[in-house]
Write a structure and sequence with these properties.
Elements lengths: L2 H4 L10 H12 L12 H20 L1 H5 L8 H26 L5 H9 L17 H18 L8 H29 L3 H20 L11 H6 L7 H19 L9 E3 L4 E3 L5 H11 L3 H14 L1 H25 L1
Antiparallel strand pairs: 1-2
The chain binds benzoyl coenzyme A (BYC).
Length: 331
């Protein structure tokens, strides 16, 4: 009767019924689980998977926008974009640190990303051909991220929940700066407005796909919700995002590229047309326009940064040796 809450995410568990029931009771009582607490192996694995994927997404998510830092139209835009991309790097680092508390090393996660084995959000495999894409990413991608991540501030695993509080505050600034870019374009010349519309056309469906497969195809949702890692299903969050975003598009005088989108007076929700799940899975499996470039760019950044890591290690070693020598001299 309780079984789906007791089995590890890998479908197997060595833990006793009593242990698993006591763990679930802590979750049900809204207690936070901390790194040194006993936890089912499935819980540890699910969180390691999700947090690592989330960290990779933040790190790869720097690339589509980083591309525009040198081409931002004004100094003000450039400063804001630079700060946003740095924030994303910071989010990646908190999240790698949160995943490390579960026993996986940063080196392992980095290695997996660089050899193309790790998953990261499908959204970052699309190109950013115009400046409007920087606005649209802030408006839609960060908007979707906030919808998905606010509930993660109440995740049952303490380090993840705490990291998400700061992440969400920063995402909310990103969302506003993106919306303001799109608003400026939408209220500008006809060409600028068209640029904003074209960008919305490109990013609308990929943004809906960010929330993951529909509930019927989401393999992890049920267990993750029982463990209070996730608080809402993929479809529920997608719906909340659509309901919040359609009025924003209307205010801008832009139209989402979905001929079937309609407002249902009875339910109070905007109903969307069919999502192209074949495209989603193609991108998730590495077939997106930018998958290969993203990993190649990350690898180049990693290789180019080798001297910084080596210098930091050499400096730490020098300090340690100096401290040891001082201690020995004092003895
Ligand atoms: N892209 O059973 P499901 C950001 C995979 S960062 C790729 O529903 P789950 C931002 C899923 O991993 C954005 N893969 O899984 C950064 C699973 O595969 P595996 C990222 C996806 O975990 C910079 C399989 O499909 N946000 O926002 O219960 C700038 C079955 O899915 C995707 C986070 O990571 C996808 N879109 O639910 C701006 C938030 N969706 O592992 C913004 C935290 C699903 O079995 N993560 N898959 O091989 C989550 O909330 C959940 O992991 C998801 C998926 C809702 C994404």
């Amino acid at each position: 009767m309780y079984a789906q809450g007791l089995i590890g995410a890998d479908g197997a568990s060595d833990e006793s019924e009593e242990f698993l029931a006591a763990f679930q009771a802590r979750i049900d009582a809204e207690e936070k689980i901390e790194p040194n607490d006993a936890m089912p192996e499935g819980y540890r694995k699910t969180l390691t998977r999700q947090i690592a994927q989330h960290a990779h997404s933040e790190i790869v998510g720097m690339l589509p926008e980083g591309n525009w830092i040198t081409r931002a139209p004004t100094l003000r835009r450039k400063a804001a974009l630079l700060a946003k991309v740095q924030d994303e790097g910071g989010h990646g680092l908190y999240l790698y640190a949160a995943a490390e508390t579960l026993g996986v090393s940063r080196e392992q996660m980095t290695e997996e990303l660089l050899c193309g084995k790790a998953k990261y959000s499908s959204i970052f495999n699309y190109p950013t051909p115009t400046w409007a894409d920087i606005g649209t990413i802030g408006w839609l991608v960060d908007g979707a991220a906030i919808m998905n991540q606010i509930p993660l501030c109440r995740c049952s695993f303490g380090p993840y929940a705490r990291a998400m509080i700061r992440v969400c505050k920063e995402e909310s600034f990103h969302h506003r700066q993106g919306y303001e870019i799109v608003m400026t374009l939408a209220q500008g010349t006809p060409e600028q407005k068209q640029m904003a519309q074209d960008s919305l056309d490109r990013w609308w469906w990929p943004s809906l796909m960010m929330f993951g497969p529909s509930d019927s195809d989401s393999v992890h949702s049920e267990q993750s919700m029982t463990w209070k890692i996730k608080r809402f299903s993929n479809d529920d969050l997608r719906q909340k995002f659509i309901d919040a975003t359609i009025p924003q598009a209307e205010y801008l005088g832009l139209k989402v590229p979905d001929p079937d989108m309609r407002f249902n007076e009875e339910t109070g929700h905007h109903e969307h047309g069919e999502i192209d799940w074949d495209e989603f899975w193609r991108v998730v499996k590495g077939g997106g326009k930018m998958n290969r470039d993203r990993i190649a760019d990350r690898k180049k950044a990693w290789d180019d940064g080798a001297w910084v890591r080596e210098a930091a290690l050499a400096h730490a070693e020098k300090r340690r040796a100096r401290q040891e020598a001082t201690l020995e001299a004092a003895e």
